[in-house]
Amino acid sequence: MSGTLVLVRHGQSEWNLKNLFTGWRDPALTQLGHEEARDAGKRLRAKELNFHMAYTSVLSRAQATLDHILEEIGQTGLDTIRNQALNERDYGDLSGLNKDDARAKWGEEQVHIWRRSYDVPPPGGESLRDTGARVWPYYMHDIQPHVLRGENVLVVAHGNSLRALIMALDGLTGEEIVAQELATGVPIIYKLNADSTVASKEVLVG
C-alpha cells in the first residue's frame, strides 16, 4: 500500500455566495467558508491523519482553506507548494458575471453548455478538458510520486481542478465528471496502490 492523497475543495467564497463566475479571480472566503475549512480540518484530525506535505493553488480562497485545515490538525509549519496548475478553471469573459446575467446575455442553453460540457470553453476561457491538461501532468510529475513513496499528501484546490483530478483517479468519462457536484470543504481521502491505481476512496461528509 502506498500513501494517502486527500483532496479538499476550498470553503465557500464571497463570489460563490453571490452566484458569480469566479475562475482565476481572487475573492475571499465568506464566514461560512472559514467555518467549512475549519470543519474539514476537524474531520481530518478525527481520522488522525498527519501529512508530509501540502499543495494548493495561487488563489487566496484555497490558501486560506488550507491554513485553517493545518491549524486544526496541528501542522501549521507543513511544507506547502503553491502552483498555478491547481487553479480553478479560467472562465474567461464570464469571470465576475452573475450566472443569471450571463444567461440573459448568451441564453440558457449556451451558458449551460459552457458550464456543463467537458470540452467547450467559454469565450477567452478554459473547458474542463483544458483544465485537466494542466492538472494531470502536474499531478503525475509533482504530487503522485510522493504518495507512491508512502507519504500522506494534502491538496486544497477548486471545484474544477479537483474534478479533473478525480476524473483521472476514478476513471470517469467527461460526461460523468461534469455531472458530479463537489461540495465545499469536504475532504476526499484516497488510498493508492503501488501501481498508482485507487485502493479505496472515502468522502468525509459531516
Automatic annotation (TrEMBL):
It is an enzyme of class 5 (isomerase). The record marks H158 as: Transition state stabilizer. Belongs to the phosphoglycerate mutase family. BPG-dependent PGAM subfamily. Homodimer. Its EC number is 5.4.2.11. This is 2,3-bisphosphoglycerate-dependent phosphoglycerate mutase. Pathway: Carbohydrate degradation; glycolysis; pyruvate from D-glyceraldehyde 3-phosphate: step 3/5. NCBIfam families: pgm_1, PRK01295.1. It catalyses: (2R)-2-phosphoglycerate = (2R)-3-phosphoglycerate. HAMAP family: PGAM_GpmA. One of its GO terms (molecular function) is phosphoglycerate mutase activity. The active site is at H10, E88. Keywords: Gluconeogenesis, Glycolysis, Isomerase. GO terms for biological process: gluconeogenesis; glycolytic process. Catalyzes the interconversion of 2-phosphoglycerate and 3-phosphoglycerate. Substrate binds at residues 9-16, 22-23, 61, 88-91, 99, 115-116, 159-160. Pfam families: His_Phos_1.
